[in-house]
# Entry
Amino acid sequence: MSNKVVYINISKLYSLEGGVRVQQALNEVGIYEDAYLKVADGIICEIGYMKDLKITDETVVDVKNQIMIPGLIDAHSHLVFGGNRVNEYAMKIQGASYLEIYQAGGGIHSTVKATRDASFTELYKKAEKAIQEFMSCGVTTLEAKSGYGLNYETELKQLRVVKELQKNVPIELVSTFMPAHALEQGKEAYAYLGEMIKEVLPVVVKEDLAEYMDCFLEKGIFDAEQSMYILQAGKEAGLKIKIHIDEMEDIGGTEVACALGATSVEHCMVTNAKSMDQLKENGIVTVILPATSFNLGKPYANVPLMKEKGLMIALSNDYNPGSCPCTDSLWMARIASRGCHLTPNEVLSMMTINAAKAIDREDRIGSLEVGKQADFVIMNVDSFDEVIAHMMANPITAVYKKGIRIV
Ligand code: NIG
Ligand code: FE
# Structure
């Protein structure tokens, strides 16, 4: 039996070939019209035009003139948590700020309590449901941060849930240890961070529970020096670095990211021109999260200036129970286009090959090219432009991961 499959009659195959995109190249998505794609053992082995197709021993799948894009990559999520924060929604709509709710003991604090109270199985099931929702929106790779435990037991519980999920769900998960996500009331920052470094980090490394460390570097949360303290320890222990910066105020996040050689900085809603130059010089990916701006009623990141400066920009959802309870990546894509002035092709580049770069996987996923993993999405539309321009119901008819159909 042949393990080769050929997908035929693809009206437009968006290859995103040629690597990470900046500036004008963000609009070049490498479209093959009337195309086919061959897969062997989960890897793409041939791409071409229907007129040149030679079928040998492959199983044929007729795509029936639908489009094909690479599997979407979400490089920023707070996947595992207990409870929800629906009760805060009316407060926010009436004007309470994110930080006011946090300082009054709500926000992240209430999710920490719910996450501590939840059993491993409850957390697992809730995250599994979110993963199903992401998959139905075309996501085939998803990053997942801890940070709703803030103690030994629950930070590890969250990370172990991700590890267990990875054994059973068909998409790839990328785990991030984020103990500096909030400071419990009554605790001293360095005492807390020191405890995480001494007690929890060695277990994370020993059990191989995370690839990255992240930190919420923000006014009223953790300052630059405190962030440096914990992230440096993570780096020395072998973790790569991502940092939440400039979500509400610029308090020096870029300098910390550059000093540590971070892979990415994330949010960047108020990042200034000078910081953008530094990010560019240091080859750090900027992950923007426009659905969070939308949901908090806050300004969008200055993406037109980031583009002009030549930054590598990725787009993700920021799925979490507070600032962005969103698993609908197609809606996020529309919000991004409108809010950040991005064309559909720019959006697609930022959710595929550029998002792959934000998790150091651009050699393996993020585009449809010979030798890469066969992660792709089939949509019943004439073009990807239509998905963004029309606020339609989900047009996805199939999702494949490593050549296996998962939706
Ligand atoms: O990325 N900014 C920090 N963390 C999350 C929000 C977490 C929460 O509100 O529970 C974010 O927006
Ligand atoms: Fe976040």
